[in-house]
Amino acid sequence: MPRFRRIIAYWLPLAVVITGLCVLIYAAVQQNYRMNANDPQIQMAEDSAAALDQGAAPSDIIPQSKTDIATSLAPFVMVFDQQGQIVASSGSFEGGFPVYPVGALTAADKTGENRVTWQPRPGLRFASVAHTTNSGYVVAARSLREVENRIQQTTFFTGITWLTALAASLILLLIGDHLAFPA
C-alpha cells in the first residue's frame, strides 16, 4: 500500500472520532449556555404569576424602574390579559410597550408555561418565559446578547481545537509512518 493511502486509512477514522467529540462538546456547552439563560426568567414568571393569582395588582409585581430592552441586559416583566393585550410592563421598546407574540402566550395554555426565544427585530433576541395566570399571562424576559457572545466564543474555540487536533493527528501519523517505514 502506498504511503499516502496508508496514512489516510489510519487518519480518516481518527478524524471522524475527533470531529464527533468536538461536535458533542460544542453541543453540550452551547445547550448549557442557552438553557441556563432561562433560569432567572422562570423564577420571575412563576413568582409573578403566583402573586397575581393571590390578588396582587399588575403594578405590584412590575419592577418600578423601566428597562429599555433594546440596550439593557436587565430582565423585565410584562403582564397580559386573557386576550393577549399588554396590561403592564417594566420593559419599554422604541418608546412604547414591547410587542410580544400572542401565539407564544397562548402556547402556555397547554402546560402553564412556554419558553421561547423572542426576536422583536433582527439582532435583538431574548430568552422569555410566558406563564399563565387566572387573569391572563405574565412574561419575564432578558437579552441573550451576552449568552450569544459566549456561544460565538465557544464556536471559535471549538473550531480552533478541532482543526488543531486534526492537524496534530495527521502530523503524528506522518511522523509515525516515517519512523516505522523509512523511505
Which helices and strands appear, and what pairs or packs with what?
Blueprint: H1 3-36, H2 39-53, H3 58-61, E1 67-68, E2 76-81, E3 86-89, E4 91-92, H4 102-106, H5 108-111, E5 113-121, E6 124-133, E7 136-143, H6 145-180
Parallel strand pairs: 1-4
Antiparallel strand pairs: 2-3, 2-7, 5-6, 6-7
Helix pairs in contact: 1-6
Shape: elongated
Structural class: alpha+beta
Strand content: 15-25%
User: What order do the SSEs take from the amino end to the carboxyl end, as H and E?
Assistant: HHHEEEEHHEEEH
* Unreliable sequence segments: none
Strand order of the largest sheet: 3-2-7-6-5
Q: Major β-sheet, in short? A: 5 strands, antiparallel
Your description of this structure?
It is a single chain. With 183 residues, the protein is α+β, with helices and mostly antiparallel strands. The chain contains six helices and seven strands; from the N terminus they run αααββββααβββα. It has helices spanning 3-36, 39-53, 58-61, 102-106, 108-111, 145-180; strands at 67-68, 76-81, 86-89, 91-92, 113-121, 124-133, 136-143. Strand 5 (113-121) and strand 6 (124-133) form a beta hairpin. The protein is elongated, with a radius of gyration of 25 Å.
